[in-house]
Amino acid sequence: MNDLLKKLLILRSPGVGSVKYNSLLDEYGDLNSVIDSLNLSNDFIDSIKREMDMANDMNIKYICDDDSLYPRELLSVKNHPIIITVRGNVQTLNKKKVSIVGTRHSTVSGMNFVAELAQSFCEHDYVVVSGMAMGTDTAAHVGALKSNGNAQTIAVLAGGVDYIWPLENESLYYEIMERGAIISEMPVGMKPNGTNFVQRNRWIAGIADSLIISEADMKSGSMTTARFAIEYKKPVFAIPGHPSDARRMGPNSLIKNGKANLCMSVKDFFDDEKIQKDKKINTPKNDILDKLGMIPVSESVLANLVKKTVPEIKSDLVVLELQGLIRKQDGGYVLN
């Protein structure tokens, strides 16, 4: 039985996380003694071996916290994961990193700003870290992938590293896997639950050198991530917005209370020849987007405005909604 299997047997035992794992090692002295104390069944041992076989079949790597590939920033966080699974380029883990987080219901302008920031960071040899959710996370990953080369972005998942969530980001998942890395501390094949997302947010905050928060309401997971970053004494940057927008209350409050630095542009981080003043990631040109605003417009009215039939615009509406550019409201559609 090798050390990786022994560690997984302990970590996958009910009620055992990083804290309990370390406590058991302190109490019993070594892996073998801990395993003996747990009285594990053969069925349980076989299930962990099957997980390892699944990981091997999908080229998923286990990285232990005593491995040189383990992210050095995460290693400094108390009760960090003992083992993370990685799908993609493991060399991504030890480059300079910035985490970017925000609401799933981001505005178009908010996503464009985040994408531009992410692209600029990658062009300065950073890796952009986020959680692969819709909205801000998606914009961060997409912006990073617009830069040249590989090892540009890391997606931290709340479920198993092979479990694609949300399903709308399936194509993004595979692009990140191809040109960056997907990581998790959860068992391979595991579906995420609510508690896992809080843990996921801890590692998004812990794995990077600094954190940028975009649109986020006060009770959001993104604000939880920012609080973790502050606890870890990481530099936090907040993108301000109009005070009447609930999505701006989180970052605005961090700036007001002196918990975050003001983030107004790429120049807050870099000021050199790599920044092109005329570089912008514009809102996609689309006849439907041009006809929408804050007042809901029905499918039939939209179809008339763009000179198409309702069936003809339905697929466009689905795509725009999945991209987070529009949303349904009161029987019609509005811009996000």
Helicity range: 40-55%
Number of strands: 11
**Total tally of structural domains:** 3
Task: Sketch the major β-sheet.
Answer: 9 strands, mixed
- Weakly predicted, low-confidence segments: 276-284
Number of H- or I-type helical stretches: 14
Structural class: alpha/beta
CATH architecture of the largest domain: 3-Layer(aba) Sandwich
Kindly provide the name of the CATH class of the largest domain.
Answer: Alpha Beta
Please name the defining characteristics of this protein.
single chain; 336 residues; alpha/beta; Rossmann fold; nine-stranded mixed sheet; 14% strand; globular
Summarize the structure.
With 336 residues, the protein is an alpha/beta fold.
Tell me what you see in this structure.
With 336 residues, the chain is an alpha/beta fold. It has 3 domains: 1-57, no CATH class; 88-268, Rossmann fold (3-Layer(aba) Sandwich); 287-335, Orthogonal Bundle (Arc Repressor Mutant, subunit A). The protein is 43% helix and 14% strand. The protein has 14 helices and 11 strands. α1 crosses α3 (31-38), α7 (136-145) packs across α8 (170-179) and α9 crosses α10. The radius of gyration is 22 Å and the shape is globular. The termini are far apart. Mean pLDDT is 92; it is low at 276-284.
